[in-house]
Design brief:
The complex is a heterodimer of chains A (917) and B (147).
Chain A lengths: L2 H6 L16 H12 L3 H20 L5 H16 L8 H8 L4 H15 L5 H13 L4 H14 L5 H11 L5 H17 L1 H5 L2 H6 L6 H17 L8 H12 L8 E2 L2 E2 L1 H15 L3 H18 L9 H15 L4 H15 L4 H17 L8 H7 L5 H14 L5 H13 L4 H18 L3 H15 L6 H12 L2 H11 L1 H14 L4 H19 L5 H14 L8 H13 L5 H18 L4 H10 L5 H14 L5 H4 L19 H9 L8 H18 L9 H4 L12 H10 L3 H20 L11 H20 L4 H12 L1 H29 L6 H21 L12 H15 L4 H42 L1
Chain B lengths: L1 E8 L4 E6 L6 H16 L8 E4 L2 E8 L2 E7 L5 H19 L4 H6 L1 H11 E2 L2 E2 L4 H16 L3
Antiparallel strand pairs in B: 1-2, 1-5, 3-4, 4-5, 6-7
The chains are: A mainly alpha (917), B alpha+beta (147).
InterPro entries (chain B): AP_complex_ssu, AP_mu_sigma_su, Longin-like_dom_sf
Keywords (chain B): Membrane, Protein transport, Transport
Protein name (chain B): AP complex subunit sigma
Chain lengths: 917, 147
């Protein structure tokens, strides 16, 4: 079709170009050199040299107009090839102010191109534009109007508007047309001020010259998009013009390949589509003409020229936008069918685009063409494929989902653009979720997607699948299948009969465990996400598997744990799955020992943790079923957050003289008040209170967290809070008291005491540097220091406390570090510990770990652990919680450490004291 | 609406560029031209003449060593633009009589003028070849009288 032009435009054929007479030798040389450049690099070098030359010229004071216009053209080339020539923009403006039309033309042309990147020049232009708009020379006016469309800004509109309005009535069609384009520019920039003159360009619709009407239509197209209501009365005129065009009453010059003024037809159709949108009455006025245009446009189909198709395509677009008319929609879908079935990719592309819009208002449109549409996915043309994918997303329904998803996946495999792939995968997953009727199909499809694109998938899908398998039912599924497809029903019939003895949920579980056990057995480097689902399903339901024995699955899982291609997270899940399988089946493999041995020293704490858990659980054959009961993911777990079963125990220990539990909140409150008190009371009473230290009762210091302080609060003085502060004050006072015995030369007595105090101060400083929290403990330390003998027993007690704390913390970290639990449980654990501690202090009863009494409490605690294991389904949330627990544990470690330090210091001091004595 | 019209040769060198949108710096333009040209040049003959690029659609047509690329917005009629490119080439051909790449380079001012007569503000304003060329003949007469 365009063959003739291909020959004409061939660079090789070109020998004697149309060389204008005004071209200088230098300019010709530049053009030829640019033409000869083989690479961008050569070109850049050439232009840079050229710019240096041009800079020399621009420095000259007087340049002749001819040379100036030639320089401007050279500058134009430099800018065209991507170089900044702002240094010489002024030349273009100077040239536009020349009186010679040619120089003026070159000047305006270059200025309009330069100015779009340099806004300062616009104001310099406005004067000459105003002058030229009033010129007698038609062409000068035309050039000025053209320049307006390119450079005008909102501020400049008032300066030229009145002139342009006059020019709308110019006798030359060229000027009327250009004036209208200028009006369009104004309209776009400030619609409000221009719409006042709407009457003026309404008249232009009836212009003798159709191209003037064409430009007027641009303005109305703009208005129809923004304010369709203001021009509804013009619908009749638009329809009339359209009728006029298709009836062939225009001059023959406006025909393009036997189509009458195709671009004006397109403009009219666009306007009508905006005006008829959501408006039944207007739409009815339009139906007939659109149908006519659609029919006429087919004429152009013969020559392989696309003008007819362009109009037809526009008709389809219009029909989709108008208030729906079944008759027109049918015609549109037939037309779209012609596009889709065409030989040309251009037409196919447009057909797909048209159907994508059409299918929203007329779902039947794609029914006949589904196979052709899907074939477009196999076309090598990327643009076409992407458009087809969009269409497929819209036409997917329950009956074609499996087919379409399959095609999409095979398309996805050929894609390289990672971002596009990711978005497509998530859309396909959504599609499968929305339209998939069959759980079996859904699971298989998701697996297929995960196998290939697992890395691109959002992890939420894992939990969806887990939930589906644990709660879904296969029976409903089969009923659906029967309704839909007989053949499929026959195929699944055999399986179905096997499964009928189970309820739907169990059948689904058997189905899925078989699939996932197979995936594990394949030992391929699939994405981790797929293995994670597989391992969870295998772990939960291995006993239901019909294709593999539990031992086989276990062996496969063991192999998987040792595989290099899985991540640590997956490996940890595999270990838990193994634990579950062992506890469900009661069977044990020798390899498990090796696994435990190997991964107990893993660098990954999670894996290590799970190994220890497995080891621990496997050593308790009596309670193993309680810890991991089969199929318990959906069982609700009741947690006794108050731990009422321990009440009796607590009462007993209280009777035996234990201390009452102080809750965390109360402790914090007390600490805060203490801090406050210190600040307030520092300036007050500076008296000595020796009796405070003497009436201490070491026997009862027992709360494990802040032991000595409380003693003083309660027992040394009646005024609880202020008391400890006074203790601190008293220390400093004591020192001052000693200082009375100092002389200028030195100290006369109490040497030991003094040394101790200095030592003490040093330590105090260090401690403060390391940890601010130590302040309270520091006070205790001081107390100890001053009451060495009294506190001796206390220290011993303290040490016992520390040991016990360590043990309990160990137990805790073993239990709660990974599995995670709800916050209250932790709190209650603390309670237990403290209760135990109270006991320890008074009765020397060993902690839980040392001698587990086979009591009710113990069993109940096991249940709690058990409950925690079953919470694996919500791995994510429990992880978060376990983190916060870790933090808690850490804070405990800190207090533990500081207490230990204090004890050490006290011990040292005691030693010192005894030596001196 | 048309956003830009580009004429590039098969080496990807720009021969004519007209933008109907503001707000692009020279560097951004160069980057845009390079990217679009690279994509268009890599496409095969049988593939469709449309290319989706960011929020634009690029419609291109090849004539021997020259590529005509037109960037449009979402609602523009693709085939209409494709035929407009052809109409533009026909007009250039009528004016230059056997138009070639060097014609456009030596007469870059005329090439721009033809384009300005046919499309302004991103809208097609004239497709009648006679009307388009008429003002050019006047300019030619003026330039011939130059000393």
């Amino acid at each position: 079709m365009s063959q003739t032009y291909i020959n004409k435009l061939n660079y090789q054929d070109f020998v004697n170009p149309n060389k204008p007479n005004y071209i200088t030798k230098e300019f010709e040389k530049l053009i030829r050199e640019i033409g000869d450049c083989k690479s961008k690099l050569d070109e850049d070098r050439l232009i840079e040299q050229q710019i240096i030359k041009l800079k020399k010229f621009t420095k000259k004071k007087k340049i002749k107009p001819k040379q100036q216009s030639e320089l401007v053209l050279r500058l134009l080339f430099c800018q065209l090839l991507g170089h900044d020539v702002s240094f010489a923009h002024i030349l273009a403006i100077n040239s536009s102010q020349e009186s010679n039309l040619f120089y003026k033309f070159i000047g305006y042309l270059a200025a309009s191109i330069f100015i779009s990147t340099n806004e300062d020049l616009q104001l310099l232009m406005i004067n000459s534009i105003q002058k030229d708009l009033k010129s007698d020379n038609t062409l000068a006016v035309s050039i000025a109007l053209t320049t307006i469309t390119k450079i005008i800004t909102v501020d400049m509109i008032p300066a030229v508007l009145s002139n342009v309005l006059i020019l709308l009535k110019h006798q030359e069609p060229l000027i009327r047309k250009k004036a209208l384009t200028a009006m369009y520019t104004f309209l776009k920039q400030s619609p409000e001020s221009i719409l006042k003159h709407q009457k003026d360009f309404e008249l232009m619709l009836d212009d003798k010259d159709i191209s003037v009407t064409g430009v007027a239509l641009d303005l109305f197209l703009f208005i129809s998009k923004t304010k369709p209501k203001t021009i509804k009365h013009l619908v009749v005129s638009f329809v009339e013009i359209l009728n006029l065009i298709i009836s062939g009453k225009l001059p023959i010059e406006y025909d393009y390949r036997e189509i009458h003024a195709p671009w004006i037809q397109i403009k009219l159709l666009k306007i009508l589509s905006y005006l008829g949108q959501d408006d039944p009455n207007t739409s009815r006025e339009i139906y007939q003409v659109v149908q006519l245009v659609l029919k006429e446009s087919e004429i152009g189909f013969i020559n392989g020229i696309f003008a007819g198709h362009a109009i037809m395509h526009e008709c389809i677009k219009t029909i989709t936008k108008l208030y729906p008319s079944t008759k027109l929609l049918e015609l549109a879908s037939i037309a779209a069918g012609k596009f889709v079935t065409s030989y040309s990719n251009n037409l196919k592309y447009l057909g797909i685009t048209a159907l994508t819009d059409l299918v929203l208002v007329y779902p039947e449109a794609t029914n006949k063409h589904q196979i052709i549409i899907v074939d477009c996915l196999e076309d090598p043309d990327e643009t076409l494929k992407r458009k087809t994918i969009e269409l497929l997303f819209r036409i997917t329904n329950k009956s074609n989902i499996s087919f379409i998803v399959e095609k999409m996946l095979s398309y996805l495999k050929t894609q390289k653009d990672q971002k596009y792939k990711t978005s497509l995968v998530s859309r396909i997953l959504k599609l499968a979720e929305e339209h998939g009727t069959n759980i079996k199909w859904y699971i298989l499809t998701i697996n297929k997607i995960l196998q290939i694109f697992g890395d691109l998938v959002n992890h939420d899908i894992v939990y969806n699948i887990m939930k589906l398998i644990s709660e879904g039912s296969l029976l409903e599924d089969e009923e659906d299948e029967e309704d839909e497809d007989d053949e499929e029903e026959k195929e699944s019939g055999k399986e179905g009969s096997q499964l009928t003895k189970y309820d739907g949920n169990t059948a689904l579980k058997i189905f899925s465990v078989n699939i996932y056990a197979e995936i594990i057995s394949l030992k391929k480097p699939y994405p981790n996400i797929l293995y994670q689902i597989s391992l969870w399903v295998a772990g939960e339901y291995s006993y239901l598997c019909t294709n593999f024995t539990t031992e086989e699955i276990m062996v496969n899982v063991v192999d998987l744990i040792n595989a290099f291609y899985i991540s640590d997270e997956t490996r940890a899940m595999a270990i838990t799955a193994l634990t579950k399988m062992v506890s469900h089946s009661g069977k044990y493999l020798e390899q498990i020992d090796t696994i435990i041995q190997k991964y107990s020293t893993s660098r990954n704490t999670d894996i290590r943790q799970r190994c220890f858990e497995m080891k621990g659980i496997l050593q308790l054959p009596n309670i193993i079923d309680n810890i991991l009961p089969p199929d318990s993911i959906n069982t609700d777990i009741e947690i006794d957050t108050n731990l009422e079963f321990l009440n009796e125990f607590v009462e007993n220990s209280l009777k035996n003289g234990g201390k009452k539990y102080i809750s965390k909140e109360e402790r914090i409150k007390m600490e805060n008040e203490l801090q406050l008190g210190i600040n307030e009371n520092k300036k007050k009473s500076k008296e000595l209170r020796f009796e405070a230290y003497q009436s201490n009762n070491p026997q009862q210091s027992s709360t494990w967290r802040i032991p000595q302080q409380n003693i003083y609060e309660r027992e040394v003085n009646n005024n609880q809070i202020s008391n400890t502060i006074e203790i601190e004050n008293s220390i400093s006072l004591k020192v001052s008291g000693i200082s009375q015995r100092w002389t200028e030369t030195g100290y006369s007595g109490f040497k030991e005491n003094e040394n101790q105090n200095i030592e003490n101060k040093k330590e105090k400083g260090e401690e403060k540097n390391t940890n601010d929290n130590n302040q309270n403990n520091q006070n205790n330390n001081n107390n100890n220091n001053n009451n060495n003998q009294n506190d001796n027993n206390d220290n011993n007690n303290n040490q016992i406390n520390q040991n016990n704390n360590e043990k309990i913390l160990d137990v805790k970290s073993f239990r709660f570090n990974r599995i995670g639990s709800k916050e209250p449980i932790l709190e209650e654990e603390n309670k237990i510990q403290e209760k135990n501690l109270n006991n320890d202090n008074n009765n020397n009863i060993t902690t839980i770990k040392q001698k587990p009494p086979k009591t009710e409490e113990e069993l109940k605690r096991e249940k709690t652990v058990n409950a925690l294991f079953n919470g694996v389904g919500s791995v994510r949330t429990s992880r978060k919680k376990s983190k916060s627990q870790k933090v808690n544990l850490n804070s405990k470690h800190i207090t533990k450490n500081t207490i230990e330090k204090n004890n050490e210091k006290v011990e040292n001091l005691i030693d010192l004291g005894s030596e001196k004595n | 609406m048309i956003k830009f019209i580009l004429i590039v040769n098969k080496l990807g060198q720009t021969r004519l560029a007209q933008y109907y949108t503001t707000g692009l710096s020279i560097n951004q333009r160069v980057a845009l031209e390079n990217e679009i040209t690279r994509r268009c040049l890599s496409r095969k003959d049988k593939e469709c003449s449309f290319l989706e690029f960011r929020d634009l659609k690029v419609i291109y047509r090849r004539y021997a060593s020259l590529f005509f690329l037109v960037g449009v917005d979402e609602e523009e009629n693709e085939l209409g633009i494709l035929e407009f490119i052809h109409c533009l080439v026909e007009t250039l051909d009528r004016y230059f009589e056997n138009v070639c790449e060097l014609d456009l380079m030596f007469n870059i001012d005329k090439a721009y003028m033809i384009l300005d007569e046919m499309a302004l503000n991103g809208n097609i304003i004239e497709t009648n070849k006679k009307t388009v060329i008429a003002p050019l003949h006047i300019i030619d007469q003026v330039s011939k009288k130059l000393k």
